[in-house]
Amino acid sequence: MELINCVPPENPNDYHDVFVYLEIRNEHITKGSLEMLGKGRELAEKLGDKVVGVAVGKGLKKIADEAASYGCQIFLGADVTDYSGFSSVAYTEFISSFVFEHKPSIFLISGSREGRDLVSRIAIRCKTGVAADCIELDADVQNRLLIAWRPSFGDKTIDQILCKKHRPQMITSRPGSYKLPQQVEKPDCDVRIKKVKMAKLAQDHKTLEFKKKDRLDLTSSKIIVSGGLGLGKPAGFKIVQELAEALGGEVGASRPVVDLGWIPYEHQVGQTGQTVRPHLYIAAGISGKIQHIVGMKASETIISINTDPEAPIVKYSDYFINADLYKAIPKLTEEIKKVTAQVAAPSS
Ligand SMILES: Cc1cc2nc3c(=O)[nH]c(=O)nc-3n(C[C@H](O)[C@H](O)[C@H](O)COP(=O)(O)OP(=O)(O)OC[C@H]3O[C@@H](n4cnc5c(N)ncnc54)[C@H](O)[C@@H]3O)c2cc1C
């Protein structure tokens, strides 16, 4: 499909390297951007390219060091001498200029609010397209193409997206979609920081402050016990909560129980909720429709409790308890409490 009014580059193979936008919050790179950096490094290694971190802000030397420690090989920074906070217009200008100068083949941006704001503006400036909310990425080495997968058609299918002509190939993925990369032992990064001014560009729009929403963040939970429609009634969340507490975890939920008002939205896991990757995910009374699966499939260990052995969740589970959750969950909670008490008891 041709993009209207867009001229693709004569030779897409003139474009090299994987750009990753490094969003900065509280003087550190956000977790979502670090996940993208890890994914970018994987793709770059496969393609024989380099992973390039791109950042805008002040005091960027510290950010460059942090990026290097996570495997960034080239750091391009726009050090703003008159910094007045995030401005989509100014940031777009600085980042697009890096794209024009460097000609990256791929550009990954974490799908945070800031990332979503920037990605479409940069894509328009660079005359390319964007695949948003991708859930997996890979590289076709022979054709030097990014392969991106994303849910489509009301999330009924998972489609493969290729951007064959335009460059860079731009995508976003929601925070929590990929593993945090390991820190590298010997960071080796070519740091290039240029001084820029933003006053003229940012005059129409000023960010006053970022306020952290006081809401449950399941993306950093190590243990999640989720309940679905199989609970049958809102009060069913009591036993889910008890199991989560016994395990020292948090409570998650499928979408219909949130839609029914049984539990607030901040607990929803899935395509239109949070994307989680805990050590342990217990799905109780959840069938495992694809929109739920995409939000929790990266969990290290998955246990499902369901009366239906044919439920789709079973094939994603490491352990399956084929039982009525009202019988299974209280027993599990009781056993976990016993074990915890034994471990905590002082040995005589
Ligand atoms: C655009 C779009 C976005 C969506 N986003 C999300 C999302 O972010 N998250 C999400 O979860 N869904 C999402 N959905 C909805 C999704 O398609 C499913 O409808 C939903 O995940 C099903 O929820 P469930 O598994 O709780 O319910 P059901 O599919 O009804 O499954 C209930 C399960 O409970 C089992 N069960 C019943 N009684 C018991 C019992 N006593 N003990 C044990 N097991 C029992 C049943 O066998 C069944 O497998 C989205 C849908 C669309 C169209």
Description of the structure:
The structure is a single chain. This protein is an alpha/beta fold. It has 2 domains: 12-196, Rossmann fold (3-Layer(aba) Sandwich), CATH 3.40.50.620; 218-344, Rossmann fold (3-Layer(aba) Sandwich), CATH 3.40.50.1220. Helix content is 28%, strand content 24%. The protein is built from 8 helices and 17 strands. The protein has helices spanning 31-47, 60-69, 88-102, 113-125, 237-247, 255-259, 290-296, 325-344, and strands at 18-21, 24-25, 28-29, 51-57, 74-80, 106-110, 130-131, 136-140, 145-152, 157-161, 169-173, 190-196, 223-227, 250-253, 280-284, 301-306, 319-322. The strands form 4 sheets. The chain has a 7-stranded parallel beta sheet with strand order 7-11-6-1-4-5-12, sandwiched between helices. It has a 5-stranded parallel beta sheet with strand order 14-13-15-16-17. Helix 2 (60-69) links the parallel strand 4 (51-57) and strand 5. Helix 3 crosses helix 4 and helix 5 packs parallel to helix 8 (325-344). It is elongated, with a radius of gyration of 23 Å. The N and C termini lie far apart (74 Å). The model has no long low-confidence stretch (mean pLDDT 92). Residues 154-155, 228-230, 254-256, 268, 270-273, 285-287, 289, 291-292, 295, 305-308, 311, 324-326 line the site of flavin-adenine dinucleotide.
